[in-house]
Amino acid sequence: MKKIILITGGAGFIGSHVVRRLVNKYEDYTIVNLDKLTYAGNLENLIDIESSSNYIFEKGDIVDKAFVDNLFLKYAFSDVIHLAAESHVDRSIENPMEFIMTNVVGTVNLLNAAKETWKNNFEGKLFYHVSTDEVYGSLGEVGLFTESTPYDPRSPYSSSKASSDHFVRAYENTYNLPTIISNCSNNYGSFQFPEKLIPLFIHNIKNEKPLPVYGDGKYTRDWLYVEDHAAAIDLIFHKGKVGETYNIGGFNEWQNIELIQLLCKIMDEKLGKEAGSSAKLITYIKDRPGHDKRYAIDASKLNKQLGWQPSLDFEEGLEKTVSWYLENDIWLSNVTSGEYLTYYENQYASK
Ligand code: NAD
Ligand code: TYD
Asked: Which domains does the chain carry?
């Protein structure tokens, strides 16, 4: 079946994996990637598919209503897979307004454009909103986030994502817009901007820089390989039930410090360094304000209803990830020049 799908944020980390997967797998679909190319968006992430005949790139800002409306007029999209967002908690603490603009106002612009374009003829249409487990708040030692866990966002980032989720549900309820939301745990893998824990620490170990561990390092995250997230999005987009929410997670909880120790061990092996040398770079620093203690996803609905499960165990995924960053030195040095240096200085210098 022919489709013309708008993917927003397709030049970012997860978006580029989703774009690549759909462009390669579904020749009948036209994939239009709309991205503002912020510091986190990089067309180098898509070099391998950029000349595919079913792929089009459009540079633009989802906050710009006129631009978004015109794009919908130009292409009459059948579907939207919405990933564009400001995505880094630390940046949201420094500058919440940018998160409100992109994550909330940008999402509502897309919802309005879809509603206007589809004009109540919703047959075969879908607005798929990609969200995060952080909307559910922070867990204690036990328990998991399920699809019915009440929202309790605690950072400017998670509050903006929670707000966008609420708007998506409001458009489904009020205007019958066909929507699906998925909420995923922490992703890792290739093409992730080195401000997030895993690529940042790989980059720092490579350059023998300190590894800045927030607080006591005993915070817990549930990690999923990014290609498994892209596979889940593909599955939910095609087989998910309109109006539903699906949690996506790795069944893979790690305390930060344990993950960092494992990463150091893999880096020592890959770089041919003496065992224990990378771990010497671990430096405890001032905690992130309002740091969420633990995230852990119950992804059993997606597993039972649609048969999805992660394909890689964590150690295997982390090894692949480390190898990718070491082999893609040019990518890493390109994205860590310019704006990155100022960000790094502001974020870590005084801590
Ligand atoms: P990212 O920061 O790597 O990429 C975001 C992309 O959106 C970039 O290409 C950027 O240029 C683009 N963008 C930002 N503002 C824009 C705007 N105003 N208009 C158009 N494009 C804009 O993010 P990511 O990690 O790939 O996350 C993608 C989505 O998945 C986000 O919605 C995020 O909330 C969600 N998510 C991320 C994770 C994770 O671990 N990274 C986990 C769960 C959910
Ligand atoms: P991050 O990758 O920023 O993802 P999120 O905050 O969305 O979970 O951080 C993952 C964990 O690692 C989180 O508990 C914060 C911690 N962390 C550090 O200890 N030091 C760092 O420099 C960074 C970026 C994160």
From this structure: 4-188+223-248 (3.40.50.720)
